[in-house]
Specification:
By secondary structure, the protein is of the alpha/beta class. Helices cover 19% and strands 30% of the residues. It has a single domain, classed as Hexapeptide repeat proteins (UDP N-Acetylglucosamine Acyltransferase, domain 1, 3 Solenoid). The protein has three helices and 20 strands. The chain has a seven-stranded mixed sheet, with no helix packed on it. Strands 2-5-8-13-16 form a five-stranded parallel sheet, with no helix packed on it. The chain has a five-stranded parallel sheet with strand order 4-7-10-15-18. Helix 1 runs antiparallel to helix 2.
């Protein structure tokens, strides 16, 4: 599964592990925010890696969790879903808005193996400094380059280069991020 090869989705051992990992997701989502140390420990136990200063709002959903690596100082907002049959890598200082879906799972187009419960998973890679707008969906096998911004509601079906703004269904590059975008934080 993790190697990107087709696998039987109805494999009993795989489904026992999925059930075990789902119990960890359920437990994480039940921990109140005021118990920050307990929440941090639950995330560390669920995910393959989580960098310092990263915050994940709950509810948070994933398949296994141990295929997910999130860099330092990242922010994952409410109701994000990460289907991690294959690895999901999120860089440092990324902003993942509410309702974002990072999907590695796919199925055969041919109905015969699909009916036979065959599945495949392809990795998703999000570069450092990426901002994924609310409700964006990143499809299996996609890589998004460093500092790219993906508009809300976009569906990313193909790789996006670094340093661009992209949006739509399917997401397309609208423009490069330019000097006018680097003006810094707004003043109050």
């Amino acid at each position: 599964m993790r190697a990107g090869e087709p696998y039987p989705g109805d494999d009993p051992e795989l489904n026992r592990e999925l059930d075990r990992r789902q119990a960890l997701v359920f437990a994480l989502n039940a921990i109140p925010y005021e118990r920050a140390e307990e929440r941090a420990a639950a995330l560390e136990g669920l995910l393959a890696a989580i960098g310092g200063g990263t915050f994940v709002r709950t509810p948070f959903y994933c398949d296994y969790g141990d295929g997910i690596r999130i860099g330092a100082r990242a922010f994952v907002n409410f109701n994000c879903t990460m289907l991690d049959g294959a690895p999901i890598s999120i860089g440092d200082e990324c902003l993942i808005a509410s309702g974002v879906q990072l999907i590695t799972a796919t199925h055969p187009i041919d109905p015969r193996p699909r009916r036979g419960a065959w599945e495949q998973a392809l990795p998703v890679t999000i570069g450092n400094g990426v901002w994924l707008g609310a409700g964006a969906i990143v499809c299996p096998g996609v890589t998004i380059g460093e500092n790219t911004v993906v508009g809300a509601g976009s569906i990313v079906t193909k790789d996006l280069p670094a340093g661009v703004v992209a949006y739509g269904n399917p997401a397309r590059v609208a423009r490069e991020i330019g000097e006018g975008d680097r003006a810094g934080a707004p003043r109050r």
